[in-house]
Amino acid sequence: MSREPEGGAVRREFFRAAYALGAPWDIGRPQRAFIELWEAGGISGEVLEVGCGFAENALFLAAQGLRVCGVDLMEPAILRAREAARARGLEVAFHVGNAMELASLGRRFDTLIDSALLHVFEPGDRPAFAASLASVLRPGGHYHALYFRDGPRAVPPDALRATFGEGWRVKGIREAHYEQTDPEGARAWLATVARVADE
C-alpha cells in the first residue's frame, strides 16, 4: 500500500474545490515560461506533464507535434483536458493518477514538465516525488519545474538541489514568472534537472 504524502487529504480537497469554483491557475493558455522553453529547444521527445490540471501546457506541446501524456489526481481536470484535446483535434494520453506513483503509467519519457506541482509537496515528501519522477524519466532526459519563489510554499534553490541529488544534475535555476488569473501572477523559479543514471 502506498504511503499518503503529508497533508495529502487536505490538498485533494483544496484542489477539488478550486477546480469546482475556478482555479487561479486556469488561465486558458500555456505558461509563457514553457512556451519559451519549447522555442529554445529545451523540450523534446516524449513528454509527460506531471500534475497537468487542465493541461494547457501539454496541449500546446501536442500542437507542436510532440507525443505528450498528462497525469493529474483530479478527475474533473482530466475530463476537461480530454474534452479540450478532442475539440482541438489533438492526440494526448491523459490519465487520472498520483504523481507519487508515476511508475504505474508503465511508460518512460524524454522530458517531464511540472507547472506549480513541486511546491505543493512538504519537504519530507519531496525525495519520494523525485524518485517517482526518476521512475519514468529516461537517463539523459530533463525535468523542468516552474514553482513559487515566495511565500509559505516557496522552494529555495538549495532545497531544490537537496531534493535532486544522486542520479540527477541540476543544470539551472532561473527567475521566472508564474501566470495566474490575477494579472500580477507570482514570482517563480524555473529549474531544469537532468536524469544522469538509473537508481
UniProtKB/TrEMBL annotation:
The keyword Methyltransferase applies. GO terms for biological process: methylation. Keywords: Methyltransferase, S-adenosyl-L-methionine, Transferase. Coiled coil: none annotated. Residues 47-141 form the Methyltransferase domain. GO terms for molecular function: methyltransferase activity. InterPro entries: Methyltransf_25, SAM-dependent_MTases_sf. The keyword DNA repair does not apply. It comes from the Bacteria. It holds the Pfam family Methyltransf_25. PANTHER family: METHYLTRANSFERASE (PTHR43464), UBIQUINONE BIOSYNTHESIS O-METHYLTRANSFERASE, MITOCHONDRIAL (PTHR43464:SF19). This is Class I SAM-dependent methyltransferase.
